[in-house]
Amino acid sequence: MSSTCTVSILGCYAAAPGAFKNPTSQVLNIRNHVFLIDCGEGTQVALRRNKIKFVRIKHIFISHLHGDHFFGLMGVISTFSLLKRTAPLTIYGPVGIKEIVLLQLKLMQNFTSYPLHFKELSSKEPELVYEDDAVTVTTIPLQHRIYANGYYFQEKEGDRKLDINAVLNLNIDKAYFNKIKQGGDVTLEDGTIVPNSELTFDPPKPKSYAYCSDTRYKPVIADQIQNATALYHESTFLDSHEHLCKPTGHSTAKQAASIAKQANVENLILGHYSTRYNDLEAFREEAETIYPNVHLADDGKVFTF
Amino acid sequence: MSSTCTVSILGCYAAAPGAFKNPTSQVLNIRNHVFLIDCGEGTQVALRRNKIKFVRIKHIFISHLHGDHFFGLMGVISTFSLLKRTAPLTIYGPVGIKEIVLLQLKLMQNFTSYPLHFKELSSKEPELVYEDDAVTVTTIPLQHRIYANGYYFQEKEGDRKLDINAVLNLNIDKAYFNKIKQGGDVTLEDGTIVPNSELTFDPPKPKSYAYCSDTRYKPVIADQIQNATALYHESTFLDSHEHLCKPTGHSTAKQAASIAKQANVENLILGHYSTRYNDLEAFREEAETIYPNVHLADDGKVFTF
């Protein structure tokens, strides 16, 4: 069954945190999984302010090893221990993340109260890093100054929905319901075969969320995330600063919109704004010249799909 | 010349940061030196909010390797680079601090724009770690769950103050003034020796600031910091939780006051409160049963001595 999916923006500004501008972190709630994506300095405080229950976070996905995306990770890991957490936690991120965490835990003489696992990444191709009955997570290789991945969170297609009236009318026994929901036809006692299409409705379209930060304009991303429900794509710059994209490894709002259009996504969320800009509306206006359904991330905002 | 000395509290709460309670960090301004002491998560944001100029910080003193005292260090180091700092920065802290910082800088592929020095500490005796014409800094060995030092910041005694009327009355040439300020007597042309005490006033009493966090009650600290202008001493607990001091390596407000009294300091600042307490006044009341001049640290407060 498809359910509501929410993205809570804890921080969405590039580089050093400002007095009131948080570096990157966000929480995706999809099929009752609470995934923490990136973890800039101050993330644990932002989690508290946004009333997100620490214990529900079981997986943290780090895009790359620049400080504005991971300096809050040690604080989160330590505070989970202070709270006497017992549930396992898995960190996904570039090779090196494990050494950074374990070195500090060792020197702090302060190991975690819960099992801490790492899935270190080094592939330049998309890689399935998480899967369960309801959801998969695949890396989206990005092009930044250092090794970086976005993450593509996808609901699995749910079971077909039973047409209760149809099965009752045909006196079909409950024992067959699971088989029917999984797409099976039914043979009645008189030998008649009732095709599945007369017993069920299509399941809701699975939802999906693509997180892409930080990256240069990389059109191949669009191939991987075709028809996603929502794409968060960094837009550090406006087109007027496009010349800064190559040396810094970032994108403009226009380029983000171009990816959204090529991928035919339903929603585009812009973020990772350079703090040089005061007016975020300029990002929306620029992106809307290419693609219509543009949302602006901002600290504390929650998007529901 | 002695000048005003200020202590700006950026954060003074124990353990995990709360939504509006910062972990430990403070800025000491003494003889125009701006020393950053400890560096919990969020310190760089607190520096901005307190309008402290980053470029004036040339020395950072870390007491020990628990997260609430150093998780903000990488953010400060990185942001200094983003601001294209060129002035050298020196970090003082337990052995291991250098490895923690350099590992992360290496993996970030992002070396500093300025010379970064480390003075790693491992001695269990007081150690002079910084000295210039005006100020010395000496470690104060503490007793915590892991290796920890406080720091004792002391102004050097300044030159004696010239009694302008006296030297003019005696027609003493300006060429002798420096010698007189340094304590020398003067021989007049007729052979009379004028003792220094008739030509100068005593210099102002040098100021000193002792920072002690985190530590169990350790009376020998009082011997080292006799007559300090101000002592910041942790008071994680009230006396009602005194039984928690030994296992956690912390002190009560009463114990902090006892150190202040034994050291005959002029001012005691309490801080590093456990977040279990809502009313900080209870810390003051408890300490004042032992020692009279008690101040309560709180985030954003500035103390002037």
TrEMBL record, chains A, B:
Entry superkingdom: Bacteria
Cofactor(s) required, per the database record: Zn(2+)
Reaction(s) catalysed by this chain's protein: Endonucleolytic cleavage of RNA, removing extra 3' nucleotides from tRNA precursor, generating 3' termini of tRNAs. A 3'-hydroxy group is left at the tRNA terminus and a 5'-phosphoryl group is left at the trailer molecule
Binding site for Zn(2+) 1: 64, 66, 144, 214
Record keywords, A-Z: Endonuclease, Hydrolase, Metal-binding, Nuclease, tRNA processing, Zinc
Pfam families hit by this protein: Anti-Pycsar_Apyc1
Cofactor descriptive note: Binds 2 Zn(2+) ions.
Assigned EC number: 3.1.26.11
Record-annotated active site: 68
Molecular function terms, GO-annotated: 3'-tRNA processing endoribonuclease activity; zinc ion binding
Binding positions for Zn(2+) 2 per the UniProt entry: 68-69, 214, 272
InterPro entries the record matches: RibonucZ/Hydroxyglut_hydro, RNase_Z/BN
Function summary: Zinc phosphodiesterase, which displays some tRNA 3'-processing endonuclease activity. Probably involved in tRNA maturation, by removing a 3'-trailer from precursor tRNA.
Record-stated family: Belongs to the RNase Z family.
Subunit structure, interactors included: Homodimer.
NCBIfam families to which the protein is assigned, alphabetical: PRK00055.1-3, RNase_Z
Protein name (Swiss-Prot/TrEMBL): Ribonuclease Z
Protein's organism: Dokdonia pacifica
